[in-house]
Design goal:
globular; five-stranded mixed β-sheet; four-stranded antiparallel β-sheet; binds flavin mononucleotide; FMN; Nitroreductase; 2 domains; alpha+beta; NADH Oxidase; about 20% strand; 8 helices
Amino acid sequence: MNLYEAIFVRKSIRKYSMDKIDQKVIDHIMNFADSIPMLFDDIKVKLELVQLADLKHFQPGILTVKAPYYLVLYSTKESGYLLNAGHLMEQIALYITARGLGTCYIGNLNLKNKVLEEEEYEQVIALAFGEGECEVYRQSDKAKRLPLKSIAVFKEEADKNVRSIVSAARLAPSGMNSQPWRMVVYNNRIHLFCKKNIFIRNVMKETGLLDMGICLAHILIGAEEMWLEAKPLYMNNISSQSFKKNDYIISVKMS
Ligand SMILES: Cc1cc2nc3c(=O)[nH]c(=O)nc-3n(C[C@H](O)[C@H](O)[C@H](O)COP(=O)(O)O)c2cc1C
């Protein structure tokens, strides 16, 4: 199974066997994670593998899933770091899924890693993973997602490949399944917007950008599967406009 195929079967797993995973598999995951390029060159990230067995006095909160392993992503805070973090972590989540293991994002894993904080890294997101206690795959039609017409506007008759890419983007996981992505789709480009949330603006803005990075990962993985060259671009002519319901995030040009 490749990353594109994993998009269509991934689901959040919240019950894990506490058995250790073969060290070779862990090494493959960490090597894969280290090989992923950043979306923006100036951002630095560190990934820490935490084993539940090594954590003393760790009490998972209500929203924290108990798992044998957590991959914690720390990042410096240059512009675009949340988008980058989501884009990076989702590729790792899909790689782990393709290996037959379960994953679940954890928004607030309270680890308090003092060393990294001193180096001005911020803990951004964590991914729980391990052997699932139940089936780790799901058919994509069972995923609770908004209908395509609520998240994408097709400005031109998009071909089969572009439609498949948008369908892959639709399946992205998001914090509280909020699915903030909105897409304006042309035949060779997708403009990505994040739905404004006027009620819980600050909290949602942060997770919203992480979610957008995850969605962007699905778009770029989809484009690669279709053998299309895809480049994320920040388009000043769009960002200079203001939109009532959405914030402009980034565009993907495909050729
Ligand atoms: C940024 C982010 C944070 C999340 N935080 C949590 C969390 O703290 N606890 C949890 O159980 N699920 C968490 N999730 C998982 C979402 O609830 C889940 O992805 C969403 O409901 C869609 O379900 P699915 O992953 O099964 O497709 C998070 C997901 C994302 C993307």
